[in-house]
Amino acid sequence: MKKRKVPLFFVKWSNYEYWPFWLFFLPLVPYWIYLAIRARSFTYFTAANPGIEHGGVFGESKIDILKKINKRYLPKTIFFNSSAAIDDVLALINENQIYFPLIIKPNVGERGNDVEKIDDQQALQTYLNSATGDFIIQEFVDYEIELGVLYYRFPDSDITGITSVVAKEFLTVIGDGKSTMISLLEENDRARFQLEGLQKKLGIELNKVLAKGERRNVQPIGNHCKGTKFLSGMNLLNPKLVQVFDDVASEIDGFYFGRFDLKVKSIEDLYKGENIKILELNGVTSEPAHIYDPSYSLWKAYRETARNMKMMFRVSRANIKNGVKVTPLFEMIRLVRAHFNRSNVQLDAVQ
């Protein structure tokens, strides 16, 4: 007898990791107002990273940020205008020795939207046909360890640190020797949220029966919205790790607070600062993503988020004291409206 599946709406609303960002953040609004009063600015957070537009609230250019990072820490990366033709794209990636599979993503985007692993030229053409803006192509880094490290440093002192380390567990099917991949996915609540997209992407491959113990990564993009499980990696935090990111961040002009999303070959290499490939650097709205570990309670998640907000406030205030200007409130309101209007247009285009 098959186990009865819990309705997905119940899974979503009973687990805060699936809540919309605004809903999770709502109880923290009074604390944000308190910090804003202390900073004497409702947009104090835009001063956190003077080298990133509006501190990296949203709408920042990924390529502009990546250009600030030492190339030894980056995968091969190429920027393309939205009008780029397939022939021009192929010529440039070949010239830069980027081969399939590769990663493609919008130059402006968030939460993993429209980030795809592209396996061949046909898939690339399909992506370009639906692209609505400038985009980035990166070589695919096949390291198995992917982390998010939320780092801070103060502009007026030697104080640095890390407030969050998240380890990413990709959406994977483990065969039992008798069930199809899709039937196994249907037994996993996290995978059930992704079934429609996986069926479009993998098609009849989901009818395959994997050998007992055989593992198949069905979603190589390490984003929560694509089914990746976020686990606390705070056990990795030590002075060696802080020193590694001190070295990385010290070369990034105007950066003081944000999350490095990266892949690394091994934990030993991580502590040595070797074989690290930074996929993205997110600014001031970076979440302490380890809070989405399923073992965390809602109270613990709020406590960790509030601690992160306080650190971001301290960094921002230090920059303000050093003369960094915040984005004016009315300008921020205009940017917020434009951002969500653009997001709605992109959503309509997808639908």
Major sheet: 5 strands, antiparallel
Based on Cα principal axes, name the global outline: globular
Strand order in the largest sheet: 9-6-5-10-11
Q: How many structurally independent domains?
A: 3
Q: What is the terminal separation in angstroms?
A: 37 Å
Beta-strand proportion:
15-25%
Q: What integer value in Å does the Rg equal?
A: 21 Å
> Can you give the mean pLDDT?
93
State the order of secondary-structure elements, H for helix, E for strand: HHHHEHEEHEEEEHHHEEHEHEHH
- Uncertain residue ranges: 345-351
CATH architecture of the largest domain: 2-Layer Sandwich
Helix content: 25-40%
The helix-and-strand class reads: alpha+beta
Features:
five-stranded antiparallel β-sheet, Dna Ligase, domain 1, 3 domains, D-amino Acid Aminotransferase, Chain A, domain 1, 351 residues, disordered C terminus, 13 helices, single chain, 11 strands
What does this structure look like?
The chain is an alpha+beta fold. The protein has three domains: 50-74 and 145-167 and 235-351, D-amino Acid Aminotransferase, Chain A, domain 1, CATH 3.30.470; 76-140, ATP-grasp fold, A domain (Dna Ligase, domain 1, 2-Layer Sandwich); 171-219, no CATH class. 36% of the residues lie in helices and 18% in strands. The protein has 13 helices and eleven strands. It has a five-stranded antiparallel sheet, with helices on both faces. Helix 3 packs parallel to helix 12 (298-321). The model is unreliable at 345-351 (pLDDT under 50).
Q: What would a concise description of this structure say?
A:
The protein has helices at 8-14, 21-25, 29-39, 62-66, 86-95, 121-130, 181-185, 189-192, 195-202, 239-249, 267-272, 298-321, 329-350, and strands spanning 77-80, 102-106, 116-118, 135-139, 145-153, 160-169, 171-174, 215-219, 229-232, 257-264, 276-282. The protein has 351 residues and is α+β, with helices and mostly antiparallel strands. The strands form 3 sheets. Strands 9-6-5-10-11 form a 5-stranded antiparallel sheet, sandwiched between helices. A 4-stranded antiparallel sheet has the order 1-4-2-3, covered by helices on one side. Strands 7-8 form a two-stranded antiparallel ribbon.
